[in-house]
Write a structure and sequence with these properties.
The chain is an alpha/beta fold. The chain contains nine helices and 13 strands. The protein folds into two domains: 156 residues, Periplasmic binding protein-like II (D-Maltodextrin-Binding Protein, domain 2, 3-Layer(aba) Sandwich); 112 residues, 3-Layer(aba) Sandwich (D-Maltodextrin-Binding Protein, domain 2), CATH 3.40.190.
Length: 286
């Protein structure tokens, strides 16, 4: 692997422990993908909160894309990682990672993939998108590729020949930017919806704080939430300490703030590999 493919930002904790102690302690390495890279301040705050709860300094390392995230997992360059569902499934098969906890959003909002367009556009329904230019996130993205493609297939369309032009831009923000600039007619990203009216409480285009400039054309079935996983070599004792620290983080103000800012969840709960069977099926169909 070239050095450029391993570029990542590192957020290191130094303030949670007395001067001199840090040098005698090996940091716990926690890996994230491009969302973590985009939320650097939030990643640093999570590292600080987790370190205080686990009694060990923490380095949060962010990769610029899903491929780099998977490569770093395969290199064994972390004890724990925050993985999108499809990346987890691939890492499970290739490296034997173990899911520990999954995120629960406020009011149990549903996490879906969605095709979205500019609000002022005339597109109405999947069929109207035929022959248009689409921007995907990454082939390892459930919301930004796999589940929207599965939706097309379920509606009787051939996803391999439905669009006139396809681009893979690596993260949700880049997809939103491409649609906003008119470089793509439609994009695929995530949405969080709650209530019977499925009100949008979070979305790829809402990452910048603006939520009215885009609208949904079609949304997928619910997708299992991201997982925090342990790599195969991580000891059982450390896995238990990490799971306990993260699962109880919502019980205090700083913990709730850390979970909300970085992960967009209200809390984490224990999870099992079977939770991601729908993702395995979508990947097989794709």
């Amino acid at each position: 692997m070239t050095e450029s493919s391993r570029v990542r930002r590192e957020f290191s904790l130094r303030s949670a422990f007395p001067i001199g102690m840090v040098g005698r302690m090996t940091p716990l390495r926690f890996l994230t993908g491009p969302v973590g890279a985009a939320r650097g301040d939030a990643a640093a705050f999570f590292a600080k909160v987790l370190a205080r709860r686990i009694g060990r300094p923490v380095d949060v390392r962010a990769t610029p894309g899903y491929s780099e995230l998977l490569e770093t997992i395969l290199d064994g360059d972390a004890e724990f990682a925050w993985l999108p569902p499809a990346v987890y499934v691939r890492a499970e098969g290739l490296a034997g990672v173990m899911p520990l906890v999954a995120g629960i959003r406020a009011n149990r909002a549903k996490f879906r993939g969605a095709f979205f367009v500019r609000t002022e556009s005339d597109f109405d329904g999947l069929a109207t998108l035929r022959g248009r230019r689409v921007a995907w996130v990454d082939r390892n993205s459930c919301a930004g590729y796999l589940f929207p493609r599965l939706l097309l297939r379920q509606q009787g369309h051939d996803p391999d020949h439905f669009f006139s032009e396809e681009s893979h831009l690596g993260n949700h923000g880049a997809v939103v930017d491409a649609v906003e600039r008119g470089e793509a007619d439609v994009g695929a990203t995530f949405v969080h919806q709650e209530g019977d009216e499925e009100r949008i409480v979070g979305s790829g285009w809402g990452l910048s704080g603006e939520s009215t400039r885009m609208r949904i054309v079609a949304a997928t079935v619910p997708i299992p939430s991201d997982a925090l996983v342990a790599v195969a070599a991580t000891s059982i004792d450390l896995r238990s300490r990490f799971s306990d620290a993260v699962s109880s983080m919502h019980e205090d103000q700083d913990g709730r703030r850390a979970l909300g800012r970085l992960f967009g969840v209200a809390r984490f709960e224990a999870t099992l590999p079977s939770r991601y069977d729908a993702v395995r099926n979508a990947m097989r169909d794709a």
